[in-house]
Amino acid sequence: MAIDEEQLLGLSFVAYRRVATMLQTPAVSAPPGRSTSLSIDPVELDAALLRDRQETAGHADVSSAISFAERGAFI
Q: How far apart are CA 54 and CA 63, in angstroms?
C-alpha cells in the first residue's frame, strides 16, 4: 500500500494531509515482478480495516471461550 501525503504549510507545527491511497497488487497478465496500482478511497479503507479488527477481536473472544471450555472452565 502506498499513501501520498502533502505537507500543510503555514501552521505552527508539522502536519500532513493524505492526498491519495493506492494498493499495489501483482499484475495478472504481466511478467513476474510487475504490479498494478489501484486507487482506494481512504474512508472505505479505514472502514474495512476497522471491520477487520472487530472481526479479529470477535474471533479471539470465541477462541478464548473454547479454550476455557476445553479446560473444563464451564460447568
A: 14
Residue ranges covered by each domain of the chain: 1-40, 41-75
Edge-first strand order for the sheet with 2-7 is: 2-7, 16-26, 35-40
Give the model confidence (pLDDT) of 32-56 as tens digits: 778 888 888 888 888 988 999 988 8
- Per-residue DSSP letters for 13-56? S--EEEEEEEEEEE-SSS-TT-EEEEEE-HHHHHHHHHHHHHHH
Percent of the chain with pLDDT over 70: 76
Phi, psi of 33 (to 5 degrees): 95, -15
